[in-house]
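Dear colleague,

Following up on Tuesday's group meeting, I ran the structure prediction for the two-component complex that the binding team flagged. I've pasted the input sequences exactly as they went in, so you can double-check that nothing got truncated or mislabelled along the way. The structure tokens for the whole assembly follow below. Feel free to forward this to whoever is handling the docking comparison.

Inputs:
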Amino acid sequence: MSRLRVLGVDPGLTRCGVGIVDVARDRSATLVHVGVVRSDPGEPIERRLARIAAGIRAVIDEFAPSVVAVERVFAQHNRTTVMGTAQASGIALLAAGERGIPAATHTPSEVKAAITGYGAADKRQVQTMVARILRLDELPKPADAADALALALCHAWRGAPAASPATTLTPAQRAWADAERVARR
Amino acid sequence: MSRLRVLGVDPGLTRCGVGIVDVARDRSATLVHVGVVRSDPGEPIERRLARIAAGIRAVIDEFAPSVVAVERVFAQHNRTTVMGTAQASGIALLAAGERGIPAATHTPSEVKAAITGYGAADKRQVQTMVARILRLDELPKPADAADALALALCHAWRGAPAASPATTLTPAQRAWADAERVARR
């Protein structure tokens, strides 16, 4: 069955979430990999970025995603760390570009809306829905890892060609439908 | 004579200035290389960042700087392009880190103060002083290239161990003294 393999990246210098999902044409999704790439805040910035790059490249090389989805960073968010976050997002996009893999960015509210149907959903709601959609026994942790999976799902649902009967549902509705179907099993 | 070779990077997505100077223990400086790494605004972000990375790495590999100095990016500056600038700065720092070269960041006002003695100097003043310090017949162009050279000079002067009689002069005073000495020749 044809499927789209998406690497989602929740960029950060100290913790960079990486999550890979396979999404089928019927929009059902399977967890492939989830993890966090870390760098030591005590190290110089150039070495921290090199560690982040190495960690992301290792995930790309092992799992060969078709596309990389990265959270879009805004200047107005959390000013003390925003530049490090922006630099980490650049590293993730670079890693995709250097492997010839297309990349995309999505805003946090796009991700929340795609996953929960509500653009201002809190982290717990997103984690809960990600766990349901991927049929996980536990919530993915830490939050960075859950956010990375949410990004990957968001990208697949927003970008993938809609297959009937999904055309009649929004991604969020479909997510609920999938989760309910799972819950009924 | 021992000298410090510094690569200065004025980060940008469309134009990324790169300038290399050799700075001697007496703080005199020589131009080694100056240029601009460009990426096409019509290309996807991941490919643009890959081009910037390739351009910076080519300069590092050709000229083997001892240190890389990158302009520090602030969230409040020019919001429409600040995220791309931050990403490009991350790429420059990464390129240093991956080659095992130390990196440093300097604020625009630190650079202006080091080069002209005045933290709020305009671009033309900085370009003029850079040309005098490096004994160039023309102003370095475009402005991104001049800024990259100014960053490299700033780093060398701020970071290099002071040799007598430079200890009695601020970097800016020394720059003027050097420039005047050149003018008297």
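Chain B has one domain: 3-184.

Cheers,
M.
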